[in-house]
Amino acid sequence: MPLFVSKNGQTFGPHEPEEVAIFLGTGDFLPEDFCWQEGWPEWRPISSVLPDRPLPAQPHAVADAPPMASPPPPQSNGHIPADIEIIGTLKLPDERAVTCRVEGEIQSPSTVIIPRGVRVKACIKAESAVIFGTVEGDVQVTGRAVLKSSSTLHGDIRAARVLVEEGATFNGKSHVNPGGTAVQKNAAPSRKTPEPTKKRTS
């Protein structure tokens, strides 16, 4: 069941547990951050929900960040309704899980998540991308691009880091640029202006 994560006074999600595990691995979430899912009476540390993720060497004391008495209502800023169809450019202000149908382009200054079972025909331009579903289009990110085992990508990847899990389907080319800047596609080669030749006089 999807989890909501509380970090630095903000609530993120909903995220599937495997998505939370990814963000733990990248350091976006910490084991001592709190999570909640529907039906729970209180918030719990992520480390107690995903015990296979070890705590840091010097973790922050959980007692210093008591869980909330009751979970807040799910925020709509992390989820786009599945019954919406967008043709054109979808601009996201922050991290979002795109569950609607998109044909065109998806832009975000943060992380774009394509959940399992979702298919988009769009070029993704973002800080990072985590794909569980199907994307028909290029992925251009300045950070990391993650293709989960359930994912299918028909397009090229341009990223600083690329992770393709076993079982993922990837039809395209991967351009890894550790500098973190997007690689321009079909960039015209630079041309040198020929020096003028001197005319001989007899």
Helix content: under 10%
What is the total number of structural domains? 2
Order of helices and strands: EEHEEHEEEEEEEEEEEEEEE
What would the average pLDDT be, to the nearest integer? Answer: 76
Low-confidence stretches: 54-78, 181-198
Structure write-up:
A hairpin with a 7-residue loop joins strand 3 and strand 4 (44-45). The radius of gyration is 22 Å and the shape is globular. The strands form 3 sheets. Strands 6, 8, 10, 12, 13, 15, 16, 18 and 19 form a 9-stranded parallel beta sheet that branches. Helix content is 7%, strand content 38%. It has 2 domains: 3-64, Dna Ligase, domain 1 (2-Layer Sandwich); 77-176, no CATH class. 30% of the residues are buried. The model is unreliable at 54-78 and 181-198 (pLDDT under 50). The longest helix has 10 residues, at 17-26. It contains 2 helices and 19 strands. It has helices at 17-26, 46-49, and strands at 3-7, 10-15, 34-36, 44-45, 79-80, 85-91, 96-98, 101-107, 111-114, 119-126, 128-131, 134-136, 139-141, 144-147, 152-154, 157-159, 161-164, 169-171, 174-176. The chain has 202 residues and is mainly beta.
